[in-house]
Amino acid sequence: MTLKQLRYVVTVADIGNITEAAKKLFISQPSLTSAIHELEREYNITIFYRSNKGIEITPEGDEFLGYARQVLEQSDLIDNRYSGKTHGKLRFSVSAQHYSFAVEAFVELLKQCGGDKYEFHMRETQTYDIIDDVAHLRSEIGILYLNKFNETVIKKTLRDNGLSFNQLFKAKPHVFIGKKSPLAQKDTLTLDDLKEYPRLSYEQGSHNSFYFSEEILSTIDSDKELIVRDRATLFNMLIGLNGYTICSGVINKELNGPNIIAKPLAVDDYMEIGYILPTAIPPSTLTKKYIEMLQLFA
């Protein structure tokens, strides 16, 4: 295995086409194909399926590419530190539930460390996909919550995937509502207060188990359910339909706008919000810096 071979397979995976990847790498297609075959033979794996329609990454190739990207990132950091050379773009990926503080930390990291060339990914996504992204090294770090209802299942899933959970803070449940909602005049809300209003939650895809819900108290029945996929849609519906969602209460008016407010919810529960990392791989310099930013903005 060589760093050149790793760069070859990562480039092919990113572009999705061997011919185009060969052009970008300034080598012939047969040479690129031969280098990939040598790597596959060395480790007795198949990284790509090949067909007339192009290439598709195999499950074991997906895992291998995660490790390859980590190795290349560390190699680039060494070169940048000791030789002053820069090899391509600086890359960093985060997978998270929908938290404004995670976006704030991401923005600050980019301002401080982005440099002249970078490719940063901020994936606000489903809970299971956060775990899967970090387990397969598509993201260096994931952000999610635990509480007394989901803790056993989530922690087992993390252990099964070789991941650890690290607490950032513990929050009492709050409710996000529109500033003009009929509920806005109350200092504290109860579950009875919420009954007649639409409850908004984030879609969890094929792993739509209550244990993977992004919102606590998801097992409580609601007559009016709205399921969305992104933060902007959720906030628009909170305002336009006098809806609500149960959350940590952490909000940033610059990111979320002045028309969304948080009210405490009178329930005996909590949200332990933290980040997940692979247990077998030390965090990169960028990951450590991002954790510092999270601790600053959380």
Any overview of this molecule?
The protein is α/β, with parallel strands linked by helices and 298 residues long. Among the domains are: 1-82, Arc Repressor Mutant, subunit A (Orthogonal Bundle), CATH 1.10.10; 169-271, D-Maltodextrin-Binding Protein, domain 2. 42% of the residues lie in helices and 22% in strands. It has eleven helices and twelve strands. It has helices spanning 3-15, 18-25, 29-43, 59-82, 100-113, 127-135, 151-160, 191-194, 231-240, 253-256, 285-297, and strands at residues 48-51, 54-57, 90-96, 118-124, 141-146, 163-171, 174-178, 199-202, 225-228, 244-247, 260-264, 271-278. It has a five-stranded mixed beta sheet with strand order 4-3-5-12-6, with helices on both faces. A hairpin with a 2-residue loop joins strand 1 and strand 2 (54-57).
Annotated CATH architecture of the domain at 169-271 = 3-Layer(aba) Sandwich
Segments where pLDDT lies below 50 for 5+ residues?
Answer: none
> Structural class per helix/strand content?
alpha/beta
- Per the CATH scheme, the topology name of the domain at 169-271 is D-Maltodextrin-Binding Protein, domain 2
Strand order of the largest sheet: 4-3-5-12-6
- Tell me the CATH superfamily of the domain at 169-271: Periplasmic binding protein-like II
| Biggest sheet details | 5 strands, mixed
Give the integer mean of the pLDDT values: 89
